[in-house]
Amino acid sequence: MKDSCFVRAVLLAAALPVFPAYGASAELLESLETQMGQAAISARFQSSDAFSFTEAQEVRTLAVLEATYRAVRADFPALADQVAVTIIPVDRDLSAVGHVSGRSDAPGVVVLEISMSGAGGVDGAILDGLESTFAHELHHLVRGWTISGNRFGPGIAIAAANEGLAVVYAATLTGKAYAGNAPPAAGLAIEWAREVRGLPLHADYGQWMFAHPDGRAAVGYRTGSFIVRRAMENSGREIVDLSTLNPDEIWSLAEID
User: Fold this and answer.
1) Which of 45, 46, 75, 161 would give a disulfide with 250, using CB separation of 3.0 to 4.6 Å?
2) Whole-number mean pLDDT of the chain?
3) Handedness of CA 13, 49, 86, 1 (dihedral sign)
4) Residues 183 and 226 sit within 8 Å (Cβ to Cβ)
């Protein structure tokens, strides 16, 4: 397992085009790091038996993370001053969500999984889904929708609203949308929304958010995307504004009978 700090990576990225054959000296990097101050993103890159991130991949990854952090912080100034990110290579098909998945473990703590198995490998995943997935997870940090230190109670309806807000925010910020988070056709989406709204408080999270026994996938995420977009249409409010509301208010604006 290797640890990397964003500031050093970005300095390398900036210096390499200037000194293509030699890179930047250690003295130059140390001087620039001191001038720039503390990094917003601290990252830990994990290796697997079959894969280790190259320095170039780390630099590109960290540049995306920092740029995304700054964009989200501009929309949500309450975002934590520092975010710790663990990046893990996985041999799993994540094509439905841009080849990158994530979770918000705790306030200020995010885990990202980057698929090695897509057509473009890790490099393709960094280009495709990293920005959107990280924006999604940062949105969770802003709202307090984290595994540890969660500000919300149980229930798939709550999860759907919170995930839907993050899905729509990330799509709005990055201009990228993915099939794994897309709502079904309009008529079916209403049915799913009514179904989710009527679930018992402690309905199985894994079934409704990930893999349902009837073959449906990501019902909660896809329903959440639907109700959030419907709430935006009904209210005329933009996604950043809507993100200040609680799940019940989102459902109310969505007007699901």
Assistant:
1) 161
2) 89
3) negative
4) yes
CB 85 within 8 A of CB 156: no
Based on the number of CB atoms within 10 Å of its own CB, is 182 exposed (0-12), middle (13-18) or buried (19 or more)? middle
pLDDT tens sequence across 99-117: 999 999 999 999 999 999 9
Helix (H) or strand (E) holding 24: none
* CB-based contact 12:29 (threshold 8 Å): yes
Paired tokens of 25 = 């000296």
pLDDT at 38: 65
The pLDDT value recorded for residue 4 is 40
Measured CA to CA, the distance from residue 193 to residue 93 in angstroms comes to: 27
Q: What is the DSSP string of 69-132?
A: HHHHHHH-TTS-S-EEEEEEEE-S--GGGTTEEEEEEETTEEEEEEES-STTHHHHHHHHTHHH
